[in-house]
Amino acid sequence: MRSMKSLLLFFLSSCLVHTVWALSDPQLIVKATADQLMLEVQLKKTELEADPQKVYMLADKYASPYFDYSAMTQSAVGAFWRQASDKQKQKLTTQFKQLLVKTYGTALLGMSSDISIEYPPYHFEEGQTSVVVPTRMQLEGAPAIPVNYRAVLRDGLWKVIDITIDGISLVTNFRSSFKREIQIGASKVKGSGRIEAGIDRLIRSLAEKNAS
């Protein structure tokens, strides 16, 4: 089974959505738009292979408008979020977004022709403002994996706030590593600035990953 990072391709690609998400069954929109994105990737595969930056731009174009990166970052940082300054919160959100987009773009070309997606029945009623959209992803030669999207309706659009892969939350998965980075940074400082120093360490760590 491939790693959670490599599977991020599927997570984000399925969330290419339009304002119709506010009016329609989210699962139907996931299906239609995932097919559309995969078709574009396949048509431009040679061009994207020649310039990885275009892959990242494509990932950002389709995924970013429909992800609540602030909510995802806050949840991933956990209790430390309340102790971060406004500037730190902005930097954390920016770096976390870049990490997700870069991971998506990196996986995009390698997996675009190997994925099949199933859309099992689920319960959705008009008027709901929170929903979990279930799908099942299958890579060629591997067992199907349940992938669930937790989305909330905000300002007339469905926004993804977490993704669960085979029972593992994407946000929770990052939370443990974020906590570790903050604690290491805090341990190197004495006094009232310990948590601030730990958060700065996490920001630097994310920036280094994004620059690599």
At a glance:
This protein is an alpha+beta fold and 212 residues long.
Give the topology, please.
Layout: H1 4-13, H2 26-43, H3 45-50, H4 52-63, H5 69-77, H6 86-111, E1 115-118, E2 130-139, E3 145-154, E4 157-165, E5 168-169, H7 170-187, H8 194-211
Antiparallel strand pairs: 1-2, 2-3, 3-4, 4-5
Helix pairs in contact: 1-6, 4-6, 5-6, 5-7, 6-8, 7-8
Q: Can you tell me about this structure?
A:
This protein is α+β, with helices and mostly antiparallel strands and 212 residues long. It has a single domain (4-170), classed as Nuclear Transport Factor 2, Chain: A (Roll). The protein is built from eight helices and five strands, in the order ααααααβββββαα. Helix 6 (86-111) packs parallel to helix 8 (194-211). Mean pLDDT is 81; it is low at 16-23.
Report the uncertain regions: 16-23
Quickly name the level 1 CATH class. Alpha Beta
Order of helices and strands: HHHHHHEEEEEHH
Sheet with the most strands, sense and barrel status:
5 strands, antiparallel
Number of strands: 5
CATH H level, superfamily name: Tgt2/MlaC
Q: How many separate helices?
A: 8
CATH domain fold name: Nuclear Transport Factor 2, Chain: A
The amount of beta strand, in percent, is: 15-25%
- How would you write the strand order of the largest sheet? 1-2-3-4-5
Shape: globular
CATH architect. name: Roll
| Rg from Cα | 18 Å
Indicate the mean pLDDT.
81
**What count of structural domains?**
1
Structural class, by secondary structure, is alpha+beta
Distance between the termini: 25 Å
* Helix percentage: 55-70%
